[in-house]
Amino acid sequence: MYAIEFKTKIQNGIIKIPKKYRINLKENVKVIVLAEEKKKKTYDLIENLLNSPLNIPAFKPMSRDEIYDRT
User: Highest taxon of the source (predicted)?
Assistant: First the structure.
């Protein structure tokens, strides 16, 4: 058994084999399909908050003194 490799698109469930390989593929073959994965968009919390900030009524940011007060 020998291997050939090529890229193609599956159309209606059919894998088209390039002409240059068809002559030698008259009998049974073993097929292994390696499908490309679509990239999943990762969730970015900071980007999400910047694009859609939380609206909190009566929100007052802390002052510098309040942030660094250690008592």
Answer: Bacteria
Structural contact between residues 40 and 25, judged by C-beta atoms closer than 8 angstroms: no
The Cβ-side half-sphere exposure at 15, using a 13 Å CA radius, reads 13
The 10s digit of each residue's pLDDT in 9-19 is 899 999 999 99
Which phi and psi (to 5°) does residue 22 adopt?
Answer: -60, -35
The answer to whether 29 and 19 are in contact (CB under 8 A) is no
Cα separation, 31 vs 47, whole angstroms: 43
Q: Is the dihedral of CA 4, 8, 10, 16 positive or negative?
A: negative
- Only one residue has tokens 């660094």, namely 68
- The tokens describing 66, both together, are 């309040």
Measured distance CA(31)–CA(3) in Å, rounded: 10
